Amino acid sequence: MSRAAKATLILSTAFAFTSAIGVYFIAENEKDSLKNGPVKDAARIERRLAESNLNSKQKANLADFEAQKKLREQLAGQQELTGEIIEGKER
């Protein structure tokens, strides 16, 4: 067997072995992330409860934001929102 063939065999074997180990560690990391999902949800709920203690300006901004969301939904029901920009110029 030539040196080039041996080098190719060694490199391809090392690449396959490294890839298999990498996939294993990625799968383990994803599994751990799934297990931590409920913990993250609990933390998110706690943050949301902490955010409920807003100052008056933040509450006013939040109320304005909610009003804007309702207005957008109302207007979206009246006309189609395509995102297309219509210019008044004819070419």
UniProtKB/TrEMBL annotation:
Protein name listed in UniProt: Unnamed protein product
Annotated source species: Ambrosiozyma monospora (Yeast)
